[in-house]
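During the reporting period the student researcher (J.K.) took over the structure-prediction task from the postdoctoral fellow and processed the backlog of single-chain submissions. One of the processed entries is reproduced below for the supervisory committee.
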Amino acid sequence: MDKNYWESFYSKQNAEFAPSLFAEYVVKNVSVSSQKLIELGCGNGRDATYFAQNGYSVLAVDQCTTEIEMLQERYSQVQNLQFVCGDFTNLPKDTQYDVVYSRFTLHSISKKEQDRVVAWAYDCLAINGVFCIEVRGQKNEIYKVGEPVAGEPDAFVLDNHYRRFLHFDVFTEELQSKGFVLELAKEDKGFAPFNGSDETFMRVIARKKA
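J.K. obtained the following structure tokens:
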């Protein structure tokens, strides 16, 4: 993951604290028996804080040290919200969660790291827990734009930023092969409009069944 890129990016985004449409969708439409949530790659914390405001007990992980230190200070008195600096592709398996939330993070890591995250999510979710994913797929408008990354199919560097574009059918089949049941799996516009543009993204809600 491009740590320096994200450190710079989030330093400019701290004023933007409206939750993403995906976070709002999860709160309004995804049912869980309890509300212990981990966010993989929390960025400036806008979705993590939104989940906490809606009753979730939140652990938010990101590798951007400066951002996490700022968030830890800002939310030090909030009981149900914890920010931790770390690599979400190498997390311990010592805690169970009801929700694993990953927005715009799986396309920032390699396929090998993605496979590790998916396996970790399944192992660490409680029965009937959900893996909530929003990510760039191969129908995204900037797919194949930029410099191809050697040895990594469907990965490109654009404006000094690494992105890997997932194949919808392959990814959803891999989730199901791990044991997830897909409650939502779409690749479409309307999920994440930004600054007047409306790119195509993948949105997946995968539940761990008994």
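The committee noted the following: The two ends are 33 Å apart (CA to CA).
J.K. will present the remaining backlog at the next meeting.
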